[in-house]
Amino acid sequence: MKSAKQFVKDLREDFQTLFDISEKQCRMYFSQPDLTKEKMADFFKVRMFNERWNMVEISKKVSELPVDTPADEAKLLAKQAFDEAEHFRLVCEVLEHITGEPVDLNQFNETHGQPRPGYGVMLIKKYEAHNDPLILAVYQFLVEGQGSHVWATMADCAFDDFIKRRYAKIAKDEKFHMSIGRMQLEKMCETPEAQEKALRVAREIYWDLYECHSIALFPPTEEIKSMMRNAYGEPPRQLCVEI
Ligand SMILES: [Fe+2]
Ligand SMILES: [Fe+2]
Asked: Is the domain covering 4-232 a CATH 3.40.50.620 domain?
């Protein structure tokens, strides 16, 4: 059996194709010749409410922590909720910067406030439903890590410094959230059963994230579809996007 540390290191390598795919889809999104201000504003409204939902869901988790949770773990999760609130504000600033108009949160809440496919937060709900700390740690390690990768790519694609700085800050925080998941996994993946389960769940989440990028960023090209298949085989269920 691998040590927990080695297992987590290999799991991170297993993610790489998915991360590469999300980066490609992100770059394709931002290089569209017909990317209007309105289209971008719409995209950032989705990103903004996704951050808000992250704040809401992580705060709920903080409020539900068992009484004997080590104080350091509780503080890390509370820090994550704080970060997500900050991201909500940063994306809001980006939106104002792009449109040149003040953001009307109540109005945008009507049109973009409810979670829908393509919102990463749908996955928090899906996997939280398992009520299993190992699954949540996989979620944290993988989904926050992938979020960090996408924000860093967006920072690279951004057309001015105001936007670049804000995305880079979000990318840095998401990387920290990923490290919370890594720490938990290194504690929990000490048996062959735990390692087998973590890998199985990660490989389910890959397909959820593939759907998320394909809806929120850019539809998959033939190259992307074959990258997915070559790395992860056939999807374990019917997808809502092409493969
Ligand atoms: Fe965030
Ligand atoms: Fe996060």
From this structure: no
Domain boundaries, the chain: 4-232
Q: Which residues surround ligand 1, an ion (CB under 5 A)?
A: 51, 84, 87
Identify the H or E element spanning 81.
Answer: helix 71-99
CA 80 to ligand 2 centroid distance, Å: 6
Tokens at residue 100, please?
A: 């040149």
Distance 45 CA to ligand 1 centre (A): 14
Taking the C-alpha atoms of residue 200 and residue 197, their distance in angstroms, rounded to an integer, is 5
Q: What is the pLDDT along the chain (243 residues), one digit of tens a residue?
A: 999 999 999 999 999 999 999 999 999 999 999 999 899 998 899 999 999 999 998 899 899 999 999 999 899 999 999 999 999 999 999 999 999 999 999 999 999 888 876 677 778 778 875 678 899 899 999 999 999 999 999 999 988 899 999 999 999 999 999 999 999 999 999 999 999 999 999 999 999 999 999 998 999 999 999 999 999 999 999 999 999
Least distant ligand from the CA of 169: 1
In the reported structure, the alpha carbon of residue 5 is separated from the centroid of ligand 1 by a whole-number distance in angstroms of 26
Distance from the alpha carbon of residue 236 to the mean position of ligand 2, in angstroms? 27
Q: If you measure from the C-alpha of residue 118 to the centroid of ligand 1, how many angstroms do you get, rounded to a whole number?
A: 15
